[in-house]
Each structure stands twice: as C-alpha cells, then as structure tokens.
Write the structure tokens for this entry.
Amino acid sequence: MTEHSTQGTGRTPVSRPAWARPSAVDDGYHLDGLGDLALALGGSSDSHNWTHTLLRLIAKSDSERLEALHRALPWHVHAYLWWRDTTTSRISTAGELHAELARAAVIQDEDDGGQDHRDVPDW
C-alpha cells in the first residue's frame, strides 16, 4: 500500500471486523474488479450487495469522505486502496489481498504497542 493512502489514519485499526464473512473465493482467485474484491472480502459480486456497494462508494469518494470512511470501516478502505494501487501494474489475487490485510493488522498491533482496539470506538 502506498504512503498517501494511509496518511491521517491515526489509530484506526485495520483488523477484520467481527461481523465480516469469510472470503467467498480461494486464494488464487484473480481480483479483476470491484465484484471480485467484494467476494474476497466475504461479500457478493452482486451490485446490490452491501460490500460491493460500499466498495463503489469508497471508489467514488474524495479525500475528505475517504478519510471519514476509513475511520468507520478501515478494513474495507485499506483493502480497496491496496487493490487499487496494485491493479495499476498487474491483477492481484485474493491470497495477496488476505496477506496484505494480515500484514496491516500486525503492523497496527505493533504501532499500538500490542493493544487491541477492535472494541474501542475511535471517537
């Protein structure tokens, strides 16, 4: 993930939300578009699915709205920004996305001194 996509995120944890469903695809699945990204995040490729709709909203957001969405839904925003940044040169796989999300969660834990902020609102 590039530096510009993480600026100003503060202590917002990037760990998987407890309510998120498991990935609907295997690790080798190619993430060609938002529908594929939604599947990898446990949603559906159906454009009326909540995860797919959220990803479309993230994609259309300006920097101010993106910052607000990141505070509310950091895991999804991080996933979208990583996917967007990697698709400029190649097509990523679900496994690469899952590895990046795991890496981001570990880095967040290290930055916070190992504290778990998943149940603590950041407001």
Notes: The longest helix spans residues 94-111. Residues 23-111 form one domain.
